[in-house]
Write a structure and sequence with these properties.
The protein is α+β, with helices and mostly antiparallel strands. The chain has one domain: Glutamine Phosphoribosylpyrophosphate, subunit 1, domain 1. Helix content is 37%, strand content 28%. It contains six helices and twelve strands. It has a five-stranded antiparallel sheet, covered by helices on one side. A five-stranded antiparallel sheet has the order 5-6-7-8-9, covered by helices on one side. Strands 3-4 form a two-stranded antiparallel sheet. The longest helix is centred in the C-terminal third of the chain and has 22 residues. The protein is globular.
């Protein structure tokens, strides 16, 4: 069980996840274990995170690394994603991974942020059949995992209010994704938990590089979140209670104004 979030940015990609894994006996969950390696950095240039079986996540990471080494990520985006998805499905099916066509498919999904054909891309491999979806400027954020039902509406709010429904900067996305993760972790009935982890892909000295942010680097977005929440709280207590917004009467419709003028003697 997990919650994963990602955002395509004007200057890179940001991906975040919680740090709880569930040990299970088949489909029966047993215990929750802290897992700090949900987000993996592959070849210093790709961010990979899975939702579902840890074993499948490890195999997916290996296949992404092999594709990078084989030059697959230097091809056009369509060819790259077709190749990776095809190899993943062949690998899973070849070892007998169960696919439930009337249920949850493979029960595994993944998110990849990487330079493809020289451009930073955010790709969602859906949790049914691993079909890839490239995120665009119009659909620039994504979440997956057991916490998706909490993260998705919150990310829609963040995109509308804080990002103006446009691609945010890496800095703004880091704040927004941290906030969405904290919200999902705080209110989820179980299966997800702290600490949250954030990774960024951005250009450094002309080269796309991926790395995990340190705990110290996450202090600034947390401070921004605390200040935003404090300002909302102050407005609720002072602005709404004091009637700070002056609501004026709507203007008279033009046809009514003409009718009133025509009745003047």
């Amino acid at each position: 069980m997990t919650v994963v979030v990602g955002a395509r940015c004007s200057d890179g990609i940001v991906v975040g996840a919680d740090s709880i894994s569930t040990s299970a006996n088949g489909r029966n969950p047993l215990i929750q274990i802290r897992s700090d390696d949900k987000i993996r950095i592959v070849r210093d240039q790709a961010i990979v995170v899975g939702s579902g079986s840890i074993g499948l996540a490890q195999r997916f990471e290996h296949l992404v690394g092999r594709s990078i080494d084989g030059g697959v990520f230097n091809r056009c985006c369509h060819d790259c994603l077709f190749t990776v998805a095809n190899e993943v499905r062949e690998d899973f099916t070849g070892s007998g991974v169960h696919f439930a066509p009337q249920g949850h498919g493979y029960g595994f999904g993944a998110m990849v942020a990487a330079p493809i054909d020289g451009q930073a891309e955010l790709i969602e491999f859906n949790t049914f059949d691993m079909q890839p979806e490239r995120k665009t400027s119009l659909r620039h954020w994504v979440s997956m995992g057991s916490g998706q039902a909490l993260a998705d509406p919150f990310l829609a709010f963040i995109s509308r209010v804080f990002w103006g429904e446009r691609e945010p900067t890496v800095a703004a996305a880091t704040v927004g994704l941290c906030w969405a993760l904290e919200h999902a972790i705080q209110h989820a009935p179980g299966g997800v938990g702290l600490p949250l982890r954030i990774a960024v892909l951005r250009r450094e000295e002309g080269v796309w590089r991926a790395r995990l942010l340190s705990e110290n680097e996450l202090q600034e977005p947390r401070q921004h979140i605390a200040e935003i929440e404090a300002r909302i709280s102050r407005y609720a207590q002072e602005g709404i209670a004091a009637g700070a917004v002056q609501v004026s009467a709507p203007p008279t419709p033009p046809d009514v104004a003409v009718a009133q003028f025509s009745q003047v003697p």
